[in-house]
Design goal:
Blueprint lengths: L1 H26 L3 H6 L10 H8 L5 H36 L5 H13 L2 H14 L6 H25 L4 H8 L4 H12 L1 H17 L2 H6 L8 H11 L4 H21 L1 H13 L1
Helix pairs in contact: 1-13, 3-4, 4-7, 4-10, 4-12, 5-7, 7-10, 7-14, 8-9, 10-14, 12-13
Amino acid sequence: MRKFQYAMCGLLAIVVLAPFSWLLISSVSPADELSSGSLWPAHPTFSRYTDIFTSGTDGIAGTFRVSMVNSLVVASATTLISLVVGCLGGYAFARLRFRFRRTTLFAFLAIYMLPPIALVIPLYLALANLHLLDTQLGLIITYCSIVTPFCLWTMSNFYLSLPPELEDAARVDGCSRLGALVRIVLPLARPGIVATAMFGFLLAWDEFLYSLIFTSTTNSKTIPVAIAEFTGKFSSDFGLVAAGGVLAALPPVLLALLFQRYIVNGLTGAVKG
């Protein structure tokens, strides 16, 4: 039985890692070897990565570097804002009792579940009236409408998995409700906060439709749009597309590896709620 489990785990690892391995191999393969279908490059080259990090912003590779910085700024700011709202609002939904509490929370969740294409036109008109089209701020505001409901839902569920007696004891000792949240609840909710931040960052990092429609220059284009343009305009250089894909995958992978323990504990606590 144990050998069968190991075999299934190995097969699953191959299925999951094979596409990324091929992407990595393609990014370091010369163009002629890549077109010939070689499984392993005889003469690996890292010139595409060098071009991305050193070439000017008017070049193809430099455009991707700018887009990567845009994605980092937009995704990080979106995650920070949404996480603050989620931590405070989620605590209110989990601990306070007020009219239409569940209805309001489900309303936020319903907004999160709406297909993005249904909101494109009103969001576009709103950003146009605010002169925020083709700006990082416009994307941050738009992405917060996606990530904030997710943070509210996950954090409220995680708070419900924590015993309220700890907060009651802190309040008996003189803490205000906000003081109990900061001193008692948030340290205990660290796994849930990390897991929520991780998935919120991924939502903003991978978003494509809004970035495609609301941006038009390299000043605010994000990584998914940049990779799509590589595929459409510069499809002859598949190696550059692969290099861009590898760099786009690195931040989420590194975050998952660094905070793996917190993510597992956070998801477990959220499910218990």
